[in-house]
Amino acid sequence: MEEPEVHPDLEPIAFLLGRWEGAGVGGYPTIESFNFGQEIEFGHNGKPFLSYVSRTWLLDQDGNRVRPLATESGYWRAQPNRQLEVVLAHPTGIVEIYVGEVVFHKIELQTDVVARTVTAKEYTAGRRLYGLVKGNLMWAYDMAATGHPLTSHMSAELKKVG
After folding, report:
1. Residue 1 falls within a domain, yes or no?
2. Where does heme b bind (predicted)?
3. Into how many domains does the chain fold?
4. Can you spell out the DSSP letters for 3-42?
5. Domain range for 99
6. Which CATH number belongs to the domain containing residue 46 in this structure?
7. Helix (H) or strand (E) holding 88
8. How deeply is 108 buried, as exposed, middle or buried, from its count of CB atoms within 10 A (0-12, 13-18, 19+)?
9. Is the model's pTM score more than 0.85?
10. Which of 46, 70, 73, 78 lies at a C-alpha separation of 20 to 30 Å from 33?
11. How confident is the model at residue 54, as a pLDDT?
12. Is residue 19 one of the residues assigned to a domain?
């Protein structure tokens, strides 16, 4: 089957399409700093949204995989005037809706809605920044959780693969 054409509404975020891999750093007031590996895949089916899956794993000092960390999946929905809506689900019982804006190859998002199951950890807000820098996808994530305000949590640099 032939790959469908990218929907014209996706033009501002089409640079995300494909598979990205790399590494980053994380930390939070309640945990020790850590290094992680990550793979992200953005896909499409010809409709005006991107599918999204991210997987991360803990890395040791030598860069070897130790164990799985977070995973999330969802949809990135382009809106008029370079606005963006992102819906993410986490297996830890959290669902987030982000809203934001695309300016050239930079995306700024903040949570509009956070919903949690009764067993999920306390998490109240997130802010994400994505940017294409010299062909690499750079991103940073701030979160508000466990009584802390928005605080830097993770960032990474990913290279397009395949």
Report:
1. no
2. 30, 121, 153
3. 1
4. PPPPPGGGGGGGGG-EEEEEEEEEEETTEEEEEEEEEEEE
5. 8-161
6. 2.40.128.20
7. strand 83-90
8. middle
9. yes
10. 73
11. 98
12. yes
CA-angle at 18, arms to 13 and 23, nearest 5°: 100
Per the annotation, binding residues for heme b are 30, 121, 153
Per-residue pLDDT reduced to its tens digit, 83-103: 999 999 999 999 999 999 999
Annotated binding site: 30, 121, 153
Indicate the average pLDDT of the chain: 96
What's the Cα-to-Cα distance from 131 to each of 26, 70, 92, 134, rounded to whole Å?
Answer: 18, 21, 27, 10
Residue 25 domain-assigned (yes or no): yes
In order along its 162 residues, the chain shows pLDDT tens digits of: 788 999 999 999 999 999 999 999 999 999 999 999 999 999 999 999 999 999 999 999 999 999 999 999 999 999 999 999 999 999 999 999 999 999 999 999 999 999 999 999 999 999 999 999 999 999 999 999 999 999 999 999 999 997
Structure tokens at 26: 């994380």
Phi, psi torsion values for 141, nearest 5 degrees: -135, 125
CA–chain centroid gap for 23, Å, is: 13
